Amino acid sequence: MKQVVFEITDNRPIADSVYLLSLSGDTSAVAAPGQFVNLRLDGFYLRRPLSVFDCSEGRLRLIYKVVGQGTAALSRTSPGTMLDVLTGLGNGYDLSDAGDRPLVIGGGVGVPPMYLLAKRLRAQGKAVHAVLGFNKASEVFYEAEFRAMGCAVTVATADGSYGVRGFVTDALPESYSYYYCCGPEPMLRAVYRTAKSSGQLSFEKRMGCGFGACMGCSCRTITGYKRICKEGPVLRKEEIAWED
Ligand SMILES: Cc1cc2nc3c(=O)[nH]c(=O)nc-3n(C[C@H](O)[C@H](O)[C@H](O)COP(=O)(O)OP(=O)(O)OC[C@H]3O[C@@H](n4cnc5c(N)ncnc54)[C@H](O)[C@@H]3O)c2cc1C
Ligand code: FES
Description:
mainly beta, binds flavin-adenine dinucleotide, 16 strands, seven-stranded mixed beta sheet
């Protein structure tokens, strides 16, 4: 983990209530796709966690949806503003299990971490299929960017206003070697039940500290309790113990 002051270089809407935030600063602690950062926002006691969407040396990009006061305040923040960010949080996805034809499955703001993951898998020569799920056409983002990196892409919308009508589980291809998934918990459960291969799923919990100190994000797994912010947010399918 590293605490870094980043400068906002751009902060613009890319879909209905969804923003792309571009930052410049030290990205050396960001190691793996699926990791997250934790932003301090003026006037808010708790930091707000966001997944790494894209990262290169000195450049970090995040995608966020405005859902409450913190993200609304962030959407009003201008380029040139300095942001205090904890970087390199969480475990991220393990690419070594991917096989030749991995599937990346993202739902809503679960799509951002899939972008850097797909980019890294493509760099290894994998044939990546991206299944991206949204509520409606106005919320769809970055389909073209996944295609541009050479992924096959299927988009599903819950109301059928774009792509396949239904959920990501209605749009899974027939065959794939492995899957990686991020999205709301009902979607994770549906993918867990439906997908034919093994995989890794990324979980979202309300977080206190975000770096393993408060135990506020603990969840039960078949190998004992794990902190979603530290030993997660990515869990392997085989270790998940769903709590009803
Ligand atoms: C590891 C991790 C990665 C995340 N990555 C992204 C991302 O890439 N893009 C993105 O848009 N969001 C992401 N989130 C969710 C994001 O952190 C919350 O939406 C944000 O903190 C809400 O802040 P707020 O002040 O606007 O909303 P609040 O006023 O705090 O809450 C508004 C609403 O959002 C819900 N909410 C708040 N925090 C969470 C949370 N952590 N999980 C689920 N629901 C929440 C609340 O229950 C409430 O209904 C991630 C969360 C985690 C834990
Ligand atoms: S949020 Fe504090 S331990 Fe995870």
